[in-house]
Design brief:
Blueprint (H helix, E strand, L loop, with lengths): L3 E5 L2 H13 L6 E2 L2 H6 L6 E5 L7 H17 L4 E5 L12 H12 L4 E4 L7 E4 L2 E4 L2 E2 L18 H8 L4 E4 L8 H9 L6 E4 L4 H10 L5 E4 L3 H10 L19 E6 L4 H11 L4 E3 L2 H4 L5 H12 L5 E4 L4 H11 L1 H21 L2 E7 L1 H10 L4 E4 L9 E4 L5 E6 L8 H18 L1
Parallel strand pairs: 1-3, 1-4, 2-3, 4-11, 5-10, 5-11, 9-10, 12-14, 12-15, 13-14, 15-18
Antiparallel strand pairs: 2-16, 6-7, 7-8, 16-17, 17-18
Helix pairs in contact: 3-4, 6-7, 7-8, 11-13, 12-13, 13-14
């Protein structure tokens, strides 16, 4: 039975969920379209459908959510889980509110909860506010994000800007009760369909999983899906093929593509540049050059025989500001995605089979450009859930990562894992 059908609003977020479920003993494929989802063989316990819907127009996001819900319901999903960032990444227009509205209407559910907790990484919710460790989200570097700046830590307030539906707060005090009592308290207010729910530790997450055990729709971040599966399966044995550290290996060249402007990604590129070549694209200066992609592809072709190369639109705040001044916030992002997607195809044509991609939006664009519809996912580990394999006529191996994750040596560690898988496959 399809116990949990996950709709993720970006690719790397979906990868983390699939990999955490793999680590929990669930063989969880990831797909990038409803067509691929409906074509999946067998009867999986959980599936992740990752769509690039975090920053699209709200009307488009609604249509995407409705299509996903229809496909999930067609295959008999018990619960739909809408996965967004633990940083509640969105704008005042959406898309968390509009997507949740569409899913609630599609499922016929009376209510759902919002819990963007990621306990493993110190992201908690208390009195409706997101904390990163002991710091309010709005007081972190996230407030400078070029696309979704954290102007507030208050999830209730932010969600109310995105919906006309009533939004309530189920605070930590409420969580001290039994699951049945919490569910009854929510049901006693039928006029409130949306509830933001505190969670400061794994015990809170487990309680929320119990509260929502039979709900058609649940929303949240990274901590909840494994808790939901554990609540429903208990100590059931691991499914065959789940929890792999190494996936099928792929031969060919190696490349890093970075679109994130996160501090971690910038540090990783600096470390990479000490040993291997990096082409840095300055969007304000380069984006309109007609020969840009050809020039970078020729540069890469000369260097790939000697080892991995990196191509990045990553920029510091000044570079981001210059690009947005030239093209607008959305225009700069679209240009970066288009350029990196075209380069991914050119790199594949040059024989690259192993990719490390930094940035959720960038990862989605690259896989779309490479026409990747289905991924096998490894168990969550020090690669932060991003290691995956795309089968097919032109197989490829990937490590996809959110821009803010990983230490300085992450890019080299990711490439090492892909080489290790290649060696294992070659040895049979």
């Amino acid at each position: 039975m399809l116990e949990l059908a996950v709709l993720a609003d970006d690719l790397t977020g979906g990868m983390i969920i699939a990999s955490k479920l793999e680590a929990a003993g669930i063989a969880c494929p990831l797909v990038t379209s409803t067509e691929e989802f409906l074509a999946l063989p067998g009867d999986p316990t959980a599936v992740v459908l990752a769509r690039k819907i975090r920053l699209v127009a709200p009307a488009e996001a609604r249509l995407e959510a409705e299509a996903a819900a229809a496909a999930f319901i067609r295959r008999g999903a018990k619960t739909i889980f809408y996965k967004y960032s633990a940083l509640f990444e969105s704008t005042d227009q959406g898309n968390i509110g509009p997507i949740a509205e569409a899913l609630l209407a599609s499922t016929g559910a009376k209510r759902t909860i919002f819990c963007p907790a990621y306990i493993d990484r110190g992201l908690t919710l208390y009195k409706g506010n997101i904390f990163v460790g002991s710091t309010l989200l709005s007081e972190t570097a996230k407030r400078f994000d070029p696309m979704t700046p954290a102007t507030t830590s208050d999830v209730v307030a932010k969600l109310r800007r995105q919906t006309t539906w009533q939004v309530g707060l189920a605070d930590h005090q409420m969580l001290t009760g039994e699951a049945a009592a919490i569910a009854a308290a929510l049901e006693a207010q039928p006029e409130v369909p949306f509830w933001v729910m505190d969670a400061v530790d794994e015990a809170d997450v487990a309680k929320i999983a119990a509260v929502t055990r039979d709900w058609p729709l649940v929303t949240g971040a990274d901590s909840l899906p494994p808790a939901i599966i554990h609540d429903r399966r208990g100590r059931a044995s691991a499914e065959p093929g789940s929890g792999r550290r190494l996936l099928p290996g792929v031969s060919g060249g190696e490349a890093v593509i970075a679109g994130s402007c996160g501090v971690a990604t910038m540090a990783q590129l600096e470390a990479f540049a000490e040993r291997r070549p990096v082409w840095r694209i300055e969007l304000a200066r380069d984006a309109e050059k007609e020969d840009l992609v050809d020039s970078i592809a020729a540069w890469a072709a000369d260097r790939l025989p000697e080892g991995p190369v990196a191509i990045a639109t990553t920029a510091d705040p000044a570079g981001v500001a210059a690009a947005q001044a030239a093209f607008g916030r959305e225009g700069a992002s679209k240009r970066a995605d288009r350029i990196l997607g075209e380069l991914a195809v050119r790199l594949r044509d040059l024989g690259v089979g192993k990719f490390v991609i930094s940035g959720g939006e960038t990862s989605g664009q690259v896989l779309k450009a490479l026409d990747v519809g289905r991924l096998e996912v490894a168990a969550y580990d020090d690669l932060h859930g991003g290691y995956c394999y795309a089968p097919g006529a032109r197989p490829a191996s990937f490590v996809l990562k959110p821009g803010g994750l990983g230490d300085q040596q992450f890019l080299f560690n990711a490439l090492h894992r892909l080489r290790e898988a290649e060696r294992q496959s070659a040895e049979g």
